[in-house]
Design goal:
Blueprint lengths: L1 H17 L9 E8 L2 E5 L8 E6 L2 E8 L3 E7 L10 E8 L1 E4 L7 E2 L16 E4 L22 H6 L9 E4 L5 H10 L6 E8 L3 H13 L6 E6 L5 H20 L3 E7 L1 H14 L13 H9 L13 E9 L8 H9 L2 E5 L1 H5 L12 E2 L8 H7 L2 H15 L8 H16 L10 H12 L11 H15 L1 H10 L4 H19 L1
Parallel strand pairs: 8-12, 10-14, 10-15, 11-12, 11-13, 13-14
Antiparallel strand pairs: 1-2, 1-6, 2-5, 3-4, 3-6, 4-5, 7-9, 15-16
Helix pairs in contact: 5-6, 7-8, 10-13, 11-12, 13-15, 14-15, 14-16
Length: 503
């Protein structure tokens, strides 16, 4: 028995000597109140703003309100898994998400967890969800176009890499369609796309995924989904998560296009959260920092200079208006932050003009700097013609018999331009084809064409050019320019085709 006792003593001694447990201090608190996805916690002394909190059972929280005796936290997950009296641990980590190439082609939630059933995402790098926007010293002016493939936008409201162009309009006017056309048009290019769905119905998001898959555009796209059934905190962090994913690529010198669909629902989610956190309410019950909510997000879009890698983030935020009211609180906020807006009008949409872009109210504050020379040469008069046509059309509806010849000619030119700018959904057009048809309009080569034959003429002209004059089309595509020599050859080719088309 003595030997057995000595063995036990030596074993205990050895275990004591080999014990190397690191002592760590963990900040622990207690949930004193919980409801509607918001928890009030007592006892967390060293917690920081935007720090992740661990409620146990794989439920995380986000510290938002730091008061003298309580911490207000949003629950990122199943709120029913948290109850009064639960212990909460601070993690010491500011909220961050996985980023990198591994996310391309996937559908994820705002925390980077897969939603598409294609297995785990093995991303090694992470970035904080909130980052300070690049300062003025590292930014460069916008000078490279983002080709949307939509004639009306590329010609009159150009978007450049590093720009923030708002898409604004009522419900069901084609806002998401413009964003998806732009994503589809980047197929085979060097632009990585991120589509952030905020508060959308799951059916609509599934439809978006289906459209991108059909058009082979999911291979360069990440979809971040915080659906209508997800909690307000998840909807709140969704656009910041998408932006962090974009910044990872921008830091590598790559170009990214990010769509926020839509920021109206994002502001609703933030208002809901703020009211539950008992923050003071301001106009329309929004909290006082609602402007900062979107300005700190959209300011992260930038074109970096060559010394900083030359990457860029182009943002297409979407805002839904009520009855065309662009002077409401959230629309005016976002209009003042962005570098222009594409305004879609219900009346135009219902009258068959699609995309339903109102040229008078739409603007790009970057302008011709974000256009290729070829488009700039053919689109010069187009905007003016359309704006004058819209004014004259109001008077002309009372009858054209007493109008002078110049006015009638202007009306006819405006009607023709409107007809040419109509375009089907999810069929974006390459730059060279846009240039050919806009050149034909601008040079007055198709003024004698009946309006109901414009679409047919355009389709057949594109086939004729690619089969009979592929060198002209290829030169425009390669150089992005329209020389006088090419203009002469293009005029001849269009006139030759007109003869066969009329026959």
């Amino acid at each position: 028995m003595g030997i057995r006792g000595q063995e036990i003593v030596s074993l205990i001694k050895r275990q004591i000597e080999e014990f190397g447990g690191d002592l760590t201090l963990v900040d622990v608190g207690t949930v004193v109140q919980v409801g509607d996805g918001i928890a009030s916690i007592q006892g967390l002394q060293g917690v920081r703003s935007n720090e992740l909190l661990d409620f146990g059972n794989d439920v995380l929280g986000l510290a938002l309100n730091l008061e003298s005796d309580l911490v207000g936290a949003a629950i990122l997950g199943d709120p029913t898994g948290v109850k009064e009296g639960d212990r909460v641990r601070s993690t010491g980590r500011i909220i961050e998400i996985p980023v990198g190439e591994e996310l391309i082609g996937r559908v994820v939630d705002p925390l980077g967890r897969p939603l598409d059933g294609k297995g785990p995402i093995n991303a090694t790098a992470t970035l904080p969800v909130e980052r300070v926007a690049p300062n003025v010293v590292v930014r460069k002016s916008v000078d490279t176009p983002v080709q949307t493939g939509i004639k009306a936008i590329d010609a009159m409201i150009p978007i450049g890499r590093g720009q923030r162009e708002l898409i604004i309009g009522d419900r069901s006017t084609g806002k998401t369609a413009i964003a998806l056309d732009t994503i589809i048009n980047q197929k085979g290019g060097d632009l990585i796309c991120i589509y952030v769905a905020i508060g959308q119905k799951q059916g609509k998001v599934a439809q978006v995924v289906g459209i991108l898959e059909e058009n082979d555009a999911l291979s360069h796209t990440i979809i971040v989904n915080a659906g209508a059934s997800d909690s307000a905190p998840l909807q709140y962090i969704a656009p910041y998560s998408g932006c962090a994913m974009a910044e990872a690529f921008m830091d590598q010198g790559k170009d990214v296009l990010i769509v926020y669909d839509d920021l109206t629902k994002h502001s609703w989610a933030y208002r809901q959260m703020s009211l539950l956190l008992r923050r003071p309410a301001g106009r329309e019950a929004y909290p006082g920092d609602i402007f900062y909510l979107h300005s700190r997000l959209l300011e992260r879009s930038a074109k970096l200079d060559d010394a900083s890698g030359g990457g860029s983030i182009t943002a297409l935020p979407i805002i839904e208006t009520q009855a065309g009211d662009v002077s409401a609180y959230i629309p005016t906020n976002v209009i003042s932050i962005t570098d222009g807006q594409i305004y879609l009008e219900t009346e135009l949409f219902n009258s068959g003009i699609r995309p339903a872009v109102n040229v008078g109210l739409s603007v790009s504050r970057v302008g011709g700097a974000a256009q290729s020379r070829a488009i700039r040469r053919v689109a010069g008069r187009l905007r003016l013609d359309l704006a004058q046509y819209r004014e004259l059309a109001t008077f002309a509806q009372f009858g054209t018999s007493d109008l002078d010849a110049a006015t009638r000619s202007q009306l006819a030119r405006g009607q023709l331009a409107t007809e040419v700018l109509k375009q089907g959904q999810y069929v974006p057009m390459p730059l060279e084809q846009e240039v050919v048809i806009l050149f034909a309009v601008n040079a007055g080569l198709i003024e004698d064409l009946a309006l109901d034959r414009v679409a047919d003429f355009e389709e057949q002209l594109m086939r004729y050019m690619s089969s009979t004059h592929p060198d002209i089309v290829q030169t425009i595509a390669d150089t992005g320019d329209l020389t006088e020599e090419i203009e002469g050859r293009l005029t001849q080719a269009i006139n030759d085709f007109k003869g066969t088309f009329a026959a």
